[in-house]
Amino acid sequence: MTEPQVELEHPFSLDIDLDPSRWLEIPPRWDTVEWQDINVWARECAELFWRSYGQNPGESGIAFLAGTLRRFAEAFAPEPFDTRVLLRMWEPTAMPLQLFTMVKPAQGNREETLRFLLEVDDPDAIEPPVVEPFRTELLGEGLRSFRYLRQDHTHEVIAALRYAWRDEEVGADVVLWTATDDTAQVIRAAQDIDELAHRVSVAVWELAPENEEATEAKS
């Protein structure tokens, strides 16, 4: 895990053990060595993904996927250091699914906060969400919810899958979520998202004295 290149809002970040054959991370908006230009990033990722898929896409295939990745990055690339955005990738011609993760200092009553993070009282929900326990070894006891909602009071139906935990050891709340109008896509990705949730943990940064870099104390 790289050290932060920006001033941290909180001494937390997220560690995620990604399967690169399924997941691609969108770089944050602040400058990094890895991503100095969105077009370069999108093009290189498209070429690598097509290569790993074992097919020759031709220039049009690479350009199509690069354009798709660029649009997702423009729409969803995170700004705060405590937020990460992943794309569930399938075949190169299929639309990816965005997945968001965020960590914040724990606040308020645990049960109330987790239900708030799950948006269980969303007034736009078509029906009460399905809420169930979801435990991982790294984050402990949490909750998972699934609900359908109307988008901006229109007839468009959105499927939303959310997870929330409180890491009592480090005092942090973690939320992971996705939402899309392609309900079949959420169902298709649900098992992969469950598996990924078990690979999420909180990293705590030990803030060094002035003029010294922060170093990772725990992951």
Structure description:
With 219 residues, the chain is of the alpha+beta class. It has two domains: 12-26 and 80-218, Mog1/PsbP, alpha/beta/alpha sandwich (Protein Transport Mog1p, Chain A), CATH 3.40.1000; 29-77. It is built from four helices and ten strands; from the N terminus they run ββααββαββββαββ. The chain has helices at residues 38-53, 58-76, 110-117, 183-197, and strands at residues 12-16, 23-26, 83-88, 97-105, 130-136, 140-150, 157-167, 172-180, 200-206, 215-218. Strand 7 (157-167) and strand 8 form a beta hairpin. The longest helix has 19 residues, at 58-76. The radius of gyration is 18 Å and the shape is globular.
Give the helices and strands, then pairings.
Blueprint (H helix, E strand, L loop, with lengths): L11 E5 L6 E4 L11 H16 L4 H19 L6 E6 L8 E9 L4 H8 L12 E7 L3 E11 L6 E11 L4 E9 L2 H15 L2 E7 L8 E4 L1
Antiparallel strand pairs: 1-9, 2-3, 3-4, 4-8, 5-6, 6-7, 7-8, 9-10
Keywords:
alpha+beta, Protein Transport Mog1p, Chain A, 4 helices, 219 residues, disordered N terminus, three-stranded antiparallel β-sheet
- Main beta sheet: strand number and arrangement? 7 strands, antiparallel
| CATH 2nd-level architecture of the largest domain | 3-Layer(aba) Sandwich
- What's the CATH H-level homologous superfamily of the largest domain? Mog1/PsbP, alpha/beta/alpha sandwich
| SSE ordering | EEHHEEHEEEEHEE
Distance between the termini: 10 Å
Low-confidence stretches: 1-6, 209-219
Strand content: 25-35%
Helix and strand content put the structural class at: alpha+beta
